[in-house]
Amino acid sequence: MNPTEQVLAAARDLVQAFASNDTASYFAAFSEDATFVFHTCAQPLLSRAAYQALWQEWQADGFEVLACTSSNPVVSLQGELAIFIHDVATRLRLGHEEVASLERETIVFRQQPEQGRWLACHEHLSAMPEQLPPT
């Protein structure tokens, strides 16, 4: 498998773990020093542990992923880094309410030669332009 195919497979695995609420596999797809920027959060999350703590709070409030689909993938290899961009359609349960969203996401993967795989080291989730309020 060439590096682009490896990154696409790593991204597929990450999205599948998220979609199926496989918390352990989802967070295992990220390096410990991974950072996260979500348009739904007031502050960046500066570690995997910070995101996991927030995730646990969400779950305590009734958060559950019902479905997640990736489309329009693009991979840009940059040495030991790979930038993966895609559109992501998600259905969530937030308490007693179901919410659907269409967002654009960038995930930066870093090659882990000693482990023979790519791990996500940064994730940035943005609202799709058509969902943004008019300026």
TrEMBL record:
It holds the Pfam family SnoaL_3. Coiled coil: none annotated. Residues 7-128 form the SnoaL-like domain. InterPro entries: NTF2-like_dom_sf (IPR032710), SnoaL-like (IPR037401). Gene3D superfamilies: 3.10.450.50. This is Nuclear transport factor 2 family protein. It comes from Aquipseudomonas guryensis.
